[in-house]
Amino acid sequence: MSEEFVLDVRDLRTSFLTNKGVVRAVNGVDIAVPPGKIVGLVGESGCGKSMTAKSVMGLVPYPGRVESGSIRLDGRELVGLKDKELRKICGNDVSMIFQEPMTSLNPVLKVGRQVREVLLKHKKAKDKDDAKSQVLEMFERVGIPEAGQRYDAYPHELSGGLRQRVMIAMAMVCHPKLLIADEPTTALDVTIEAQILDLMKKLCEEEGMSVLIITHNMGVVAEICDYVYVMYAGRIVESAPVFDLFDHTEHPYTRGLLLSIPRMTGNPEFLSTIPGVVPNMLHLKEGCAFSNRCAHASDRCRRETPGIAEVREGHACRCFLHEQKGC
Ligand SMILES: Nc1ncnc2c1ncn2[C@@H]1O[C@H](COP(=O)(O)OP(=O)(O)OP(=O)(O)O)[C@@H](O)[C@H]1O
Ligand SMILES: [Mg+2]
Questions:
Q1: What is the distance in A from the centroid of ligand 2 to the CA of 41?
Q2: pLDDT in tens, 238-249
Q3: pTM of the predicted protein model
């Protein structure tokens, strides 16, 4: 039976046991990525986006751990698997582009060879020559100029932007079923960013690759995502098809995020920001985590935590305002 989703995350809880208490970085998250689609995960710094991605890959750093929930990859449950079993299942089918690219490249190996090794390890090339030509092709596709020379460079000989492109090439060269991309283009200039986003889209359309992309950039979301999850303080607060999210924004937090996008038209002095800061995840109180920053918050919002509810087909929101609207 074919699965409806390549990645299906349900009620995921990932926490850090620190000497000050339990930090609930991911607090009951549901995310589903259908085959061949690009799904965005957005939200302010510290809200738990990277920890959600790292939970899927089994890479939550100590003292963090996945406490409960389900992560199904093509129907196979990953939570509870031993590291070795997880590597085996994820190894061939999932690639991740990390937010910190330098930590993922070996400083003493030439970059071309590092990417070539990935292909050989996953048996996606006939021999070393075939692997090298696939690497060079991918280097060109991700916008690495003079790919032949760059193949023999060490990571420290490349600029930050080029190292990031090497990481992107490494993640895509094996043509994974699922690509998890954590802020993949933040360090790149806009022309290269556009080229990489185009390439991701192409691999989705041509090969049925699925992407979970984490970004701060709502422009990137508008450009490539089919569906979007908005995360706040460890929880999903709104999820919708991309156009529905922009045209019929439901959650006050999402509205704030969208209003804070700089625009070419209008007075930049009036660029909105959301007042206040993300709450401390160590001492999350009962009630809506956004209530201290929300212009619409009532006593109930400060007292009770709203559940997530469907407001129309495919569009869900975690806010009491909808009950008032009669949804
Ligand atoms: N080593 C750690 N010890 C304790 N808490 C941690 C640790 N690493 C992360 N956290 C907690 O997990 C929360 C989520 O972190 P995460 O890296 O997922 O945020 P993010 O949404 O990816 O932010 P950014 O946009 O800045 O990358 C943080 O707010 C922090 O409180
Ligand atoms: Mg992050």
A1: 11
A2: 999 999 999 999
A3: 0.92
Cβ–ligand 1 distance for 49 under 6 Å, the answer: yes
Contact of 228 with 42, CB cutoff 8 Å: yes
Question: From the CB of 25, is ligand 1 less than 6 Å away?
Answer: yes
Q: Are 17 and 30 in contact (CB under 8 A)?
A: no
Select from 85, 73, 86 the least CA-distant residue to 176.
73
Q: What is the spatial distance between Cα 43 and Cα 278, in angstroms, rounded to a whole number?
A: 10
Does ligand 1 lie within 6 Å of residue 281's CB atom? yes
Q: Does residue 171's CB lie within 6 angstroms of at least one atom of ligand 1?
A: no
Verify whether ligand 1 is closer than 6 Å to residue 298 (CB atom): no
Protein residue with least CA distance to atom 18, ligand 1: 48
Distance of CA 43 from the midpoint of ligand 2 (Å):
10
Strand 309-312 relative to strand 227-232: parallel, antiparallel, unpaired? unpaired
What structural domains does the chain harbor?
Answer: 7-325 (3.40.50.300)
Task: Please tell me if the CB atom of residue 47 comes closer than 6 angstroms to any atom of ligand 1.
Answer: yes
Closest of 180, 156, 157 to residue 168, by C-alpha: 180
Residues with CB under 5 A from ligand 2 (ion): 50, 99
Which of helix, strand or coil describes residue 225?
A: coil
Sign of CA dihedral 211, 217, 223, 227: positive
At 256-286, the pLDDT tens digits run 888 876 655 555 544 456 777 777 777 778 8
First to last CA, the chain: 35
Cα–Cα nearest to 16, from 169, 234, 296, 237:
234
Cα dist. 255→99, 102, 159, 163, 186 in Å? 26, 34, 36, 35, 22
Residue burial 128-154, b: 16+ Cβ < 10 Å; e: rest: eeebbebbbebbebbbbeebeebbebe
Residue nearest to atom 13 of ligand 1 (CA): 25
CA Rg value for the chain: 21
Nearest Cα residue to 243 out of 157, 315, 167: 315
